[in-house]
Amino acid sequence: MVDINKIKLIIFDMDGLFLDSESVYAIGWQKALDYYQIKVGDNFVSSLKGQGARDNDKAIYDLCGNMSLVKKIRQYRTDYFLDELRKGNVKLSFFALEIANYLKQRGFLIALASSSFKETVDTLLSTHNLLNFFDFKVTGSDVKSVKPSPEIYNKTLEVAGCFPSEAMAFEDSLYGIIAAEAAGIEVCHIGESNEKVKEISFASYSNLKEAYHSIFEGEK
């Protein structure tokens, strides 16, 4: 278990962790692939979770071999996602705002580290009136390599002025966990667990409320 007394900075992933957006993205990808009649295996869409836009585009290009078509598929998915966002169907994850507020009140610095481009991050945060909520924000637009590269986490530590030993992260995807761990940051997994996740995260919980009570309040 991480020593909370040494922690100054709490870093949150965005998609699937702070925002319940991954399921909407997944539906959008599937609709786009179906519309353009691209046949994929059962696990293809789920394999896109936690990756940056460049990696997802490459995965789709490997299927169809046509970058122009890849751009059309991405635009279809983006249009679907933004429509769902306007409808209010992209919500904050359970207990996300509560845990962030609790941590701010207790004097922790809080940061957002997302592989998504800055424009996407700002749009999503603005929708929930959270554009200026985080002390620090690092996106895929700020780095050359996104998760599972540790660059986003290294950059977050740099802008926050913290050592890896002074930070901990919350992540929902394996790519994110690998990135945080590679940066030397203790990482807590949120969501459905597996052996690989358990191996490289210091703890795994079903949701942020459960994690907060166990890690910060010493109760389950």
UniProtKB/TrEMBL annotation:
The keyword Magnesium applies. It comes from Streptococcus parauberis. One of its GO terms (molecular function) is catalytic activity. Its cofactor is Mg(2+). The keyword Chaperone does not apply. It comes from the Bacteria. Keywords: Carbohydrate metabolism, Magnesium, Metal-binding. This is Phosphorylated carbohydrates phosphatase. The lineage of its organism: Bacteria, Bacillati, Bacillota, Bacilli, Lactobacillales.
